[in-house]
Amino acid sequence: MPRTIMSYVLATTGLHQTGLAILSVALFGLSAVPLELQRRIVNGLTHETAFENIAWLALGYAGVALAEQLLKLSLNIYRGWVAESTVRRLRDTVCVLDPGAQAATAEGAGIEIAMVLEEAEPIGGFTGISISEPLLQGGILVSVVAYIFVLQPWLALLGLLFFLPQTAFVPLLQGAINRRARERILVKRDVSGTIADGRLSIDASPKAGPIQRIFSLNMQIYWFKYVMNLLMNLMYHLSVAVALCVGGWMVLQGRIEVGTVVAVAGGLGKLNDPWGDLVNWAREFSVVGVKYRLFADAVDWLGTTPTGQAAEGDALAPT
Questions:
Q1: Domains of the chain
Q2: N or C, which terminus of the chain has less Cβ within 10 Å?
Q3: What is the pLDDT of residue 131?
Q4: What is the pLDDT of residue 311?
Q5: Which residues in the chain belong to E strands, given as ranges?
Q6: Residues lower than pLDDT 50 in the chain
Q7: For the chain, how far is it from start to end, CA to CA, in angstroms?
């Protein structure tokens, strides 16, 4: 198997990634259009524009929203098909593997069980979003940021400053999650090997042993993950509050229109989801990269001949 998760994605689903990328570009191309339509509607109301113009703008807004949702539906279904096809391929890889000496042991059988039933799922699921997700969410971020900067650069800059702290705490917290995710996989494989060997009573003490370790690792991952989400959401709400406060002052001073404040605040709000999705993608990419490397090493190890040895430096090879 290829050495990295992205090499595997391109080798097995390269053509489909192109199709997903095209849908992603079409989708993020519409991302700033609703903001501009909202701005024109609000400004039209404050300037007592004819109702016919407001109605046409509202109809255009509804049309763009419908187009976005249809494109999103197509993209999600296509992603799901790519992901499930990859899960099936990974499971087939394990099931049709020419077993070596290791696969005949209880430990090898336990690893095979874990790979087929559980480990293939997150790896296959990632292939559906591996390229299209950062392209889509990054495109939305660039489009919306460019739009609000053109609209009111200083107001946009004040709001965006609150996203900078995330470049510091997100990598730190994600690194902690990755280390625990890797350890959890290895512990689960040990449990699978224990069950396959017929030793169902894993540990006499409910407060010790591998099952307790899995529980502890999962709880630590929850803590890091949701603390990260809390800090990200806090930064977002602060950015909107600053935009509304400063924008409101500028409206009262007659320097900008109400619709501009609405559009900038709406744009900052629209940045929260794609930014969070990009962070989630980066989180999944790093975690799945670890899982894929362990999966590929396991395929090599399980397929070694009775006289063969696992590849030197394999992270998986049992001791």
A1: 5-302 (1.20.1560.10)
A2: C
A3: 93
A4: 40
A5: none
A6: 101, 202, 204, 305-319
A7: 23
